[in-house]
């Protein structure tokens, strides 16, 4: 494994590209327009600067990391030499199915196709390809260069060999891979999202305010961020989409998204990325 292609240059995509490049993989970062790619490279450069200023990497390592990343606006061009492709596009099932159909036709036959999806079924994604055994979930956590976990999701048809390769690869990135099966929300979001939803219900029902809820969880449970701040950080639209996958997938009312979350997303208050969620961002 040397050549990694990453589809999507948003928060997760640029973090994944950054991490592979930092560990000396050749990364092709792909998006639909050059301005998104340029912005992603700026973000990676800024995040590398943080690491340099903390002394966790050197200026030389920063330069090598950036040199290891090439950008592409054509998927066909960007994946033609790939050993592994990690898709980190928007959480939209139709978009993901289209991307995986394209990847199956453009990527080398033995390339592994991974998705960074936070909750969409790997089995369903694999079914649009002719290589279900080589399709897998590789779910990184935000911020990718910092967070140790990679949730490795085995679809119904994923082979042992593909799973072993991806687990070993995550270890090469100094991450801790955890193997899980493909059911709604996998493990991370099946547990995280009900907690966030409950925090939003706690606010909605007037039990306590934003500061109070987050402080209880930060200082009482030693969480690095309170659940409402974390929801803003993840994106309220993403939280809502994941809760809908859990609700539809299990048919259990305990996963029903809080009406306040639904309203905030409808009003365009999607968290840090839009400047407002439970908190204001300037
Ligand atoms: N790139 C590189 N380094 C980064 C970074 C980035 N994007 N963001 C932060 N860092 C580094 C900092 O340089 C710093 O490094 P040192 O430890 O060497 O000092 C370290 O991370 C901590 O950063 P800060 O001191 O700036 O801030 P902090 O201590 O408040 O930590 C945080 C920031 C790591 C984001 C922390 O608040 C945290 O862990 N929050 C929770 C994150 C979380 O739960 N993520 C999972 C979200 S769920 C998800 O991603 C999946 C999903 O499907 C929804």
From TrEMBL:
Cross-referenced InterPro entries: 3-OHacyl-CoA_DH (IPR022694), 3-OHacyl-CoA_DH_CS (IPR006180), 3-OHacyl-CoA_DH_NAD-bd (IPR006176), 3HC_DH_C (IPR006108), 6-PGluconate_DH-like_C_sf (IPR008927), 6PGD_dom2 (IPR013328), NAD(P)-bd_dom_sf (IPR036291)
E.C. number(s) listed in UniProt: 1.1.1.157
Enzyme class: oxidoreductase
Domain of life of the native organism: Bacteria
Pfam families per UniProt: 3HCDH, 3HCDH_N
Gene Ontology MF, one: 3-hydroxybutyryl-CoA dehydrogenase activity
UniProt KW ATP-binding keyword: no
UniProt keyword NAD present: no
Keywords: Oxidoreductase
Domain 3-hydroxyacyl-CoA dehydrogenase C-terminal: 185-281
Domain 3-hydroxyacyl-CoA dehydrogenase NAD binding: 4-182
Segments passing through the bilayer: none
Family to which this protein belongs: Belongs to the 3-hydroxyacyl-CoA dehydrogenase family.
Cross-referenced PANTHER family: 3-HYDROXYACYL-COA DEHYDROGENASE FAMILY PROTEIN, 3-HYDROXYBUTYRYL-COA DEHYDROGENASE
Protein name, UniProt field: 3-hydroxybutyryl-CoA dehydrogenase
């Amino acid at each position: 494994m040397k050549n990694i292609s990453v589809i999507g240059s948003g928060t997760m995509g640029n973090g994944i590209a950054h991490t592979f490049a930092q560990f000396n993989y050749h990364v092709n970062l792909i998006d639909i327009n050059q301005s998104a790619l340029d912005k992603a490279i700026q973000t990676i450069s800024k995040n590398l600067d943080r690491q340099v200023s903390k002394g966790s990497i050197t200026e030389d390592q920063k330069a090598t990391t950036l040199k290891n990343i090439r950008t592409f606006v054509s998927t066909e061009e960007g994946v033609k030499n790939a050993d592994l492709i990690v898709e980190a596009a928007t959480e939209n099932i139709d978009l993901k199915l289209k991307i995986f159909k394209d990847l199956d036709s453009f990527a080398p036959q033995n390339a592994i196709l991974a998705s960074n999806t936070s909750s969409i079924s790997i089995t369903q994604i694999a079914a649009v390809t002719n290589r279900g055994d080589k399709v897998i979930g590789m779910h990184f956590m935000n911020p990718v260069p910092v967070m140790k976990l990679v949730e490795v999701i085995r679809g119904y048809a994923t082979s042992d060999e593909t799973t072993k390769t991806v687990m070993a690869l995550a270890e090469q990135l100094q991450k801790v891979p955890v193997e899980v099966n493909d059911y709604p929300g996998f493990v991370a979001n099946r547990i995280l999202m009900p907690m966030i939803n409950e925090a939003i219900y706690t606010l909605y029902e007037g039990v306590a305010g934003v500061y109070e809820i987050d402080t209880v969880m930060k200082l009482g449970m030693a969480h690095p961020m309170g659940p409402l701040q974390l929801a803003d950080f993840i994106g309220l639209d993403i939280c809502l989409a994941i809760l809908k996958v859990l609700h539809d997938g299990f048919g259990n009312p305990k996963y029903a998204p809080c009406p306040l979350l639904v309203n905030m997303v409808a009003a365009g208050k999607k968290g840090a990325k839009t400047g407002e969620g439970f908190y204001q961002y300037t």
